[in-house]
Structure formats: C-alpha cells, structure tokens
Amino acid sequence: MDLVTLAQVQAYVQDPSDAQAALLEALADSAEDWLSKQLGVALSERVVTDRLEGGGMYLRPLVRPVLQVLSVIDTVDDSTVTATTYEIIAGRRIRLTDGAYWGRGTARFAVNYIAGYSSITNTTTTTGGGWAAVAAPEAFVTAVLHLVRRAFDAKGGAVSESAAGWSVAWREFAASDIMAILHPWLDLGVRG
Hints:
By secondary structure, the protein is α+β, with helices and mostly antiparallel strands. The chain is built from 4 helices and 9 strands; from the N terminus they run H-H-E-E-E-E-E-E-E-H-E-E-H.
C-alpha cells in the first residue's frame, strides 16, 4: 500500500480488528492499482520505460509525474539524446531546450525515466536535475478509502444494504462519489 496505511483503512471502514486486516490490505492494494491505471500516475517512485512518438514539441511519458529522465534513445539510429538538450515540463512532458521539434516516428524514442509520488513507505526524493517527489494529492487518498469502503461493504456482490432504518445503495460507478472526487484530476489531464 503506497497511499494509505492499514490503520487509516480500518478507521475508515470502522473495523479496527485484525480479523479483516488481510482483506482490507488486499482491497487497498487493488484500489491503489485501479487509481494508478485510471489516472496514469505512479503512486510511488518507480523506473519506467516507454516507447514514445516523435514529431511534436513534446514527448509525453505515459506515467506521471515524471521526476527524472534517465535516458532518451532515438531508435532510428540507436543514438542517445544528450541530457542537457531536453527538460521536464510540469512533471508531464519532455521538451527540447532549443524549442525544436522531436524527430518524427511512431514509437521512435525509448525514454527511461523515474516517475511517481512519494509514498508512505518510501519518502526518498529523486535528485540530480530531476523533480523532487511530492506526496500524492489528498483526493487520491480519499478515493482509495472510498473504494475500499465500497468493496468492503459490498461483500458478495451486494449493490445495496439496509438495516434498522439505515440504508445505502451504490450508484453506477461513472456517476459515483469516487469519480466526482477524481473529476478535477481528470479535467486537468493527469492521464493525458
């Protein structure tokens, strides 16, 4: 678990016992994995290699935030693009410092880079000309907790539950509270 602790999850689902700890950890791991894929972000620092299309002003790595570019290889001639000739823009794009366009070609550039947020288990930061890792936005933590709570409450595939005058029904996911939490991040183009 990169974003939440077991104690946070147990408090959120209101089940502090250790009897459900393994289930809650599995649900949190799954929720974090889903969130990472939906938004195209790494929830903790990791090394990524992408084959990116050229022809524009920017190379757009698939995983964000980009902290440091380790290498850029032009696969047309297997040459290494000199590190001093490009820069990371807003943790999302790589631009040539002279303003030129990258050479044209589908999957032309092999880019090896470090991406991710600092996690609760790894608080090191990337150095050496890169961006420093920052904590993931609180909205990501909230979304993970909501996902875990929903899955925990819906054991056995339940879509609604009621007892003693209390009831809850889970709406279609696209219109859910979780997507409402993540909507600003999708609007900002975290994914693309």
